[in-house]
Structures are given as C-alpha cells and as structure tokens.
Write a structure and sequence with these properties.
Elements (H helix, E strand, L loop, with lengths): L1 E5 L5 H11 L3 H11 L15 H13 L5 E8 L2 E12 L2 E8 L8 H16 L4 E4 L7 H8 L3 E2 L5 E4 L5 H14 L1
Parallel strand pairs: 4-5
Antiparallel strand pairs: 1-2, 2-3, 3-4, 5-7, 6-7
Helix pairs in contact: 1-3
C-alpha cells in the first residue's frame, strides 16, 4: 500500500517520516547542502545541539524559505518512506522536481509513482503550468523516467512538461505576468 505524504511543520508524523527517510546523518546532509550552495546560516553550528525533531523542524523551515520556496513529499510503501520529491518553485507557474529514492528501493517504480502523484496535485490543484526535471544521476535514470512520463528536453538541459489539464492559451495567460518579471 502506497501513500503520499506532504511534509509540513504542522504535521508531526510527516516530520518523523522525513527523519526516517533522510537517515541518522540528516544534520550533516543539510550542512553539506548549505556549504555546496554557499549558503551562510549563522545558527548552523548549533544544529547538533538540537533534538532530532527540533533540528528537522529548523531544516524544513530553512529549506522552505530559501531563494526558491520548496515543498517536500514522501512516498510511503507499507508505512515506510522510500522516495522523496522536493519541488522548488522557480516562479509561481514553474517548479523543478528533485527525486530521491532510497538505494535499496530503486528500480521498483517508486520514483514514477511519486512524480505522477505530485504532478496530479500540482496540475489539478495549483496554478502550476510547467514542471521540470534535471537528470543528476550518472546512469541516466532520471532522463529515461522523464521521457517515459512525457517530458521533453529543453535547451536549458532540463526536461519540461506542461500541465496537460489546461490549453496552450491558458498556459500563456498564466505565464505572461511572470515572463515580464524575469
């Protein structure tokens, strides 16, 4: 049985599941991500002094308030988190999807399931016009998956998909105010 869970600061269970998914070294992964992004977080040295729950709440809050706001979803299989999908809003109508599947759970269709579920939510319940995926794997797995889900390679190196529930005219109407702002 599979279940999609949106990670939220208001949902204690989702935070516990995120800790389980990210593993015992979730603090160090966050520190590495900050260093890689040249993000200076003045409170970062105190992260190891916090309880697991306080630390993950701090991290989720920081990640959702970075330059591009983000949301995280977990796919549970038999109540165990197996795949994560982080969506980062590049602008109000475009979001990039970053998928991570636990190594022991790869090649079981979980990445496809979470992308389809998150796309369904975004395309039907928000104003999102485009989702994008960039293949960061060394195996080309994300490229194969993106193509099989109807994504097309753009000149940016990202695979892009337009909301299939709206017309091209509606997509242009939604995107126009944001195009001017860029």
């Amino acid at each position: 049985m599979d279940e999609l869970v949106k990670v939220s600061l208001d949902d204690y269970r989702s935070l516990e599941l995120l800790i389980e998914f990210r593993g015992e070294d979730f603090r160090n992964k966050y520190l590495y991500k900050c260093a890689r992004a040249h993000y200076n977080d003045p409170k970062i040295e105190h992260l190891h002094e916090l309880s697991d729950m306080d630390a993950i709440m701090y991290i989720v809050d920081k990640e959702s308030n970075m330059q591009f706001p983000s949301e995280e979803y977990l796919l549970l299989h038999d109540d165990v988190p197996v795949t994560s999908c982080v969506i980062r809003y590049v602008n109000p109508v475009t979001c990039d999807m970053d998928i991570e599947t636990l190594e022991t759970e790869r090649n079981k269709g979980y990445a496809r399931k979470i992308i389809e579920a998150v796309e369904n939510h975004l395309f039907k319940e928000t104003d999102v016009v485009f989702t994008t995926i960039k293949d960061m794997t060394t195996t080309g797995a994300s490229t194969k998956l993106a193509i099989s889900l109807g994504y097309k390679l753009a000149n940016t190196g990202y695979y892009i998909k337009m909301n299939p529930y709206i017309t091209l005219e509606e997509a242009k109407r939604r995107a126009e105010p944001h195009r001017k702002a860029m």
